[in-house]
Design brief:
By secondary structure, the protein is of the alpha/beta class. The protein has 2 domains: 7-247, Rossmann fold, CATH 3.40.50; 250-281. It is built from 12 helices and 10 strands. It has helices at 57-64, 87-96, 104-107, 114-118, 120-124, 133-143, 160-172, 190-207, 218-224, 242-247, 252-259, 266-280, and strands spanning 7-17, 30-41, 46-50, 72-77, 80-81, 97-100, 178-182, 210-215, 227-232, 235-241. The protein has a 6-stranded mixed β-sheet, sandwiched between helices. A 4-stranded antiparallel β-sheet has the order 2-1-4-5. Strand 7 (178-182), helix 8 and strand 8 form a beta-alpha-beta unit. Helix 7 runs parallel beside helix 8 (190-207) and helix 11 (252-259) crosses helix 12 (266-280). The longest helix is centred in the C-terminal third of the chain and has 18 residues, at 190-207. The two termini are 40 Å apart. Keywords: ATP-binding, Nucleotide-binding, Transport.
Length: 281
């Protein structure tokens, strides 16, 4: 593993104004969704940000991908500070950092064919399309395990798992350095989740991208992550290699999350119960 992280976030803070609180004699209140969050993501590895709904993990991912602006803190991509980039410079960041969203159908234009959808990043980036969009779309469909003859179909003609594969095909079309998966499997059936996770791991082995994986399901995280950062209340309360966090959690909140997970492996379940018991005696 290279000592220099592919994506580095330091002391990220994101505040949002609270509606209806401003007045003549008082300033508007602000809600801190992300509070001094730092992490490193290396090429070829998967960092999972985990926590309950409202913990700040998705907002953190959006800050890292520059989908929203930071209130304070910095984001570096390949050693370059991308925190305040705009215009053409930010467009290049968009190529290098792609996002797979939670609900595939809401992120795919229902009036566009698959061919148009998966090649959209190439057109947006004004990149050459050797052989034309039909040829590129067919190759992308094949890479994600879908029938290349279906490039003329529309999103409504696919299942949820197939639609998510289309979303992944669109994301990898521009060969990103970082793939942000924001609850990318949470809306899918368990068997389909496993298929998508296997696909992401296979693509990562082939392409070497770093993956920032946002999830609340620790059973899924155990399958895909190489490292984990646990968030609550907008802060990271525990971070480390996956097995260290799962097998020997140090923070009470992490132990509570693990205690709520259905049994995955008997030996993990036994260690988890022992950790929770030891923390409460």
């Amino acid at each position: 593993m290279s000592p220099e992280p592919l994506l580095r976030a330091r002391d990220l803070v994101k505040e949002f104004p609270v509606a209806g609180t401003a007045g003549l004699l008082r300033p508007a209140r602000r809600f801190t969704a992300v509070d001094t969050v730092s992490f490193d993501l290396h090429a070829g590895r998967t960092l999972a940000l985990v926590g309950e709904s409202g913990s700040g993990k998705s907002t953190t991912a959006r800050l890292a991908a520059r989908l929203i602006d930071v209130t304070s803190g910095t984001v570096h991509l390949d050693g370059r500070d991308i925190t305040a980039l705009h215009g053409q410079d930010l467009l290049e960041v968009r190529r290098q950092v792609q996002v797979v969203f939670q609900d595939p159908f809401s992120s795919l234009n229902p009036r566009h064919t698959v061919e148009r959808i998966v090649t959209a990043p190439l057109r947006y980036q004004k990149r050459p399309i050797p052989g034309g969009t039909r040829s590129v779309a067919r190759a992308l469909m094949e890479r994600v395990g879908l029938d290349p003859d279906h490039v003329g179909r529309y999103p409504a003609q696919f299942s949820g798992g197939q639609a998510q594969r289309i979303g992944i095909a669109r994301a990898i079309a521009v060969n990103p350095r970082v793939l942000v998966c924001d609850e990318a499997v949470s809306a899918l059936d368990v068997s389909v989740q496993a298929q998508i996770i296997n696909l992401l791991r296979e693509l990562q082995r082939e392409e070497g991208f770093g993956c920032l994986f946002i999830a609340h399901d620790l059973a899924v995280v155990r399958q895909i992550a190489t490292s984990v950062a646990v968030m609550t209340g907008g802060r990271v309360v525990e971070a480390g290699e996956r097995d260290a966090v799962f097998d020997d959690p140090q923070h009470e909140y992490t132990r509570q999350l693990l205690a709520a997970v259905p049994r995955i492996r008997p030996e993990w379940d036994a260690r988890r119960r022992s950790n929770v018991t030891g923390a409460t005696t």
